[in-house]
Specification:
It is a single chain. A five-stranded mixed beta barrel has the order 1-3-4-6-5. The chain is built from two helices and six strands, in the order ββββαββα. It starts with a strand and ends with a helix. It is mainly beta. β2 and β3 form a beta hairpin.
Length: 81
Amino acid sequence: MEKLSGIITSEIKSISYSPILFRFTLTDMQDQHYNMLIHTHALNFFQQAKMGSAIEVWAVKNNRNQYVIRLFNVFDSHVLV
């Protein structure tokens, strides 16, 4: 499991409703972009996060080089900017 942190730089989009699956792009401080997927606690994440939010995630990489989030923390972007 890898720990990544950065800013959400794309809209959070729904890929599937059964099971619930969301995707977004995470950009870290070195300007690297990561494709992120979230299934576990996806509705909770969707309620807390928005484009521009700072987040910290623990994720595993799947066979399509996407990161599947296992744990997350969403920080208020107004505090960090």
